[in-house]
Amino acid sequence: MNIGEASEHSGLPVKTIRYYEDIGLVRPLRSENGYRDFVDSDLQRLKFLQRARSLGFSIDECRELLSLYEDRNRASADVKAITHAKIKEVDRKIEELRSLRKVLSELVTACHGDDRPDCPIIDDLSGQHEPGQQDESNGRN
């Protein structure tokens, strides 16, 4: 199967498949004319990569997971450990996003959103004003 067909079957763009080949995640055969010739095992790897990437695994994590996928003597504990580490990373990112949301909410609350030019959001972005900090000049937030 050519790269276009592999793209259709795997749900990955051709450019991504070429990149995965460049970094050694897939190694399709080459026909006599030099065209890529994807076989079923290549397609399975591409589908595996597409799903793993959609779950947020990095390229290096995908490389490790692919290695475990192909190792019939693997310990499922190894796969579980990688996935558990990914959950911790996701939890950390969720906390960062919650913190970011809190700061943004404070900024929105502090801004009057009227026709006046003074804006705590702009002040904060420029480093002139901290969210929640009282404006000493006029007693407003």
UniProtKB/TrEMBL annotation:
Q: What is this protein called?
A: Copper eflux transcriptional regulator protein, MerR family protein
Instruction: List GO BP terms, alphabetically.
Output: positive regulation of DNA-templated transcription
Q: Where in the cell is it found?
A: Cytoplasm
Domain named HTH merR-type is located at: 1-68
The keyword Transcription regulation appears for this protein:
yes
Task: List the Pfam families.
Answer: MerR (PF00376), MerR-DNA-bind (PF09278)
Q: Which domain of life is it from?
A: Bacteria
Q: Which intervals of the chain are annotated as region Disordered?
A: 119-141
> Which GO-annotated molecular functions does the record name?
copper ion binding; DNA binding; DNA-binding transcription factor activity
InterPro entries in the record: CueR, DNA-bd_dom_put_sf, MerR-type_HTH_dom, MerR_fam, Tscrpt_reg_MerR_DNA-bd
GO CC, alphabetical: cytoplasm
- What are the protein's UniProt keywords? Cytoplasm, DNA-binding, Transcription, Transcription regulation
